[in-house]
Design a protein that fits this description.
- The chain has 418 residues and is mostly helical.
- It has helices at residues 2-17, 35-47, 50-53, 93-102, 117-120, 125-136, 159-167, 181-191, 197-200, 241-250, 263-270, 275-288, 293-296, 305-311, 313-322, 324-327, 332-335, 353-361, 383-397, 406-416, and strands at residues 67-70, 73-76, 149-150, 219-221, 224-226.
- The strands form two sheets. It has a three-stranded antiparallel sheet, with no helix packed on it. A two-stranded antiparallel sheet has the order 4-5.
- β4 (219-221) and β5 form a beta hairpin.
- It is globular, with a radius of gyration of 23 Å.
- It starts with a helix and ends with a helix.
């Protein structure tokens, strides 16, 4: 009896999951697309940071192969160049729109939500047209990404239909007439193509985004912590629209810190996007953080150096040898305008992950070659040494309770970064 019920349930799943293939087409002639439409699509692709998930290290733009690590295994970004064999060159506009809005490939297979169609479902027809035009005018690259490496039975894509039944609620982004046109533009871009909540919102057991009160309450991306960008923002300086716009366009805020980890490529692309769209995003997300503590009162930033040295002498010595030259008050980098350590949000977060990752991986200039830089210390310092430095920094400049189990936290972050 149980076997019969299971078989019936499986048959129903297959029926629900079925999506027909959409006929292939000849690759559209790139000259058939209006240059203005292609330019609009280029801007939207930068807003969406598309290339970051569709370009492997050392690979060609949009040719796929970037590994996205999930709790269930690794998913590789697909080739979205117009190569007919390995990319989307034979996809019609209708097939492309279905992938964007429904998470279904041209062949009828369901796409993993690592491709954020849960956000793209709200993209307008005109913007879908523009993105299609942009991608179809890119150089075709023949490249096949590695096969996904997922725990069984998650390679069986019809199961994704069940996930969609539980969590996928496509809806357009409605304009709020009580807000400005700029705010509404920022909301549209942020909630669709920029898909900011994909990193900055927590996720459930099946990797669904938690919404409602948990929207923008902090999440995880590529082994980094994406801090809350709502009223729970731990920043110690207010994120005004002007400060946030500068940060998004340059990768650096002198009142906060430099963009690090997955946020670096985001700012690289936004620096090359339409300034008005970046300004709109800044307006919208500063509104989300309008009730954060620093938006009401920016706290003093005491330097508890003597106390930290007494509590963590080993960390103090390591800091003097590895960090003080650049980070102490009066250091050339600080004099040149780089933000001081206590302004950085990582030391005020409720977990040490970002502080650990910055020390392990360093910091590359996110936007321009002359931007902020920090060497990686993963090969120079042991887990214990990094933990000692972090205990010292947290005691000297941080806020909130001391972080615990730091050596294991460093070991875990190091492993994720391999």
């Amino acid at each position: 009896m149980a076997l019969a019920i299971a078989a019936a349930a499986f048959a129903i799943l297959l029926v629900i999951a079925h999506r027909p293939a959409i006929a292939s087409v000849e690759r559209p002639d790139p000259r058939s697309f209006e240059p203005a439409l292609v330019a609009r699509g280029a801007n939207l692709a930068r807003i969406g940071n598309c290339v970051s998930c569709h370009q492997s290290e050392g690979g060609r733009p949009y040719a796929g192969g970037y590994p996205i690590n999930t709790p269930f295994g690794t998913i590789y970004g697909s080739n979205i160049t117009p190569d007919p064999g390995t990319g989307i060159g034979r996809w019609s506009r209708a097939a492309f729109a279905r992938a964007m809005r429904e998470g279904v490939g041209r062949d009828g297979s369901h796409l993993y939500p690592a491709f954020p169609y849960t956000h793209y479902a709200g993209v307008t027809d005109g913007d879908v047209d523009a993105l299609y035009a942009f991608l179809m005018t890119r150089p075709a690259v023949r490249a096949t990404p590695p096969n996904n490496d997922l725990i069984p039975p998650l390679s069986f894509r019809p199961l994704l239909a069940g996930w969609k039944l539980l969590f996928f609620r496509p809806a357009p982004v409605r304009a709020d007439p009580s807000q400005s046109a700029e705010w509404n533009r920022g909301r549209y871009l942020g909630e669709t193509l920029a898909h900011c909540s994909a990193c900055h919102s927590p996720r459930g057991l099946l990797q669904q985004e938690k919404r409602g009160a948990e929207t923008y309450a902090g999440g995880w991306s590529g082994g980094w912590y994406a801090p809350p960008i709502n009223a729970r923002s731990p920043a110690v300086r207010a994120w005004t629209p002007q400060r946030l716009e500068t940060y998004l366009r340059t990768g650096l805020s002198r009142d906060h810190a430099a963009a690090a980890g997955p946020m670096g490529p985001v700012t690289y692309n936004l620096a090359r996007a339409d300034p008005a769209d970046v300004r709109a995003l800044a307006r919208y997300y500063a509104w989300w953080m309008r009730d954060a503590p620093a938006a009401k009162v920016e706290p003093p930033l005491p330097d508890r150096r003597a106390l930290a040295e007494r509590q963590h002498p080993a960390g103090a010595r390591l800091y003097e040898g590895a960090c003080a030259t650049c980070h102490e008050p009066g250091a050339p980098m600080v004099v040149a305008g780089r933000p001081v350590l206590p302004l950085g949000t990582p030391l005020h977060e409720d977990n040490p992950r970002d502080t650990i990752q910055i020390i392990l991986q360093g910091l590359r200039p996110p936007v321009e070659a002359s931007g902020p830089y920090m060497p990686a210390y993963a090969d120079a310092l042991t887990d214990r040494q990094i933990a000692e430095i972090i205990r010292y920094l947290k005691a000297r400049h941080g806020s909130g309770p001391a972080w615990k189990d730091l050596e294991n936290e460093v070991a875990e972050a190091r492993e994720e970064g391999r």
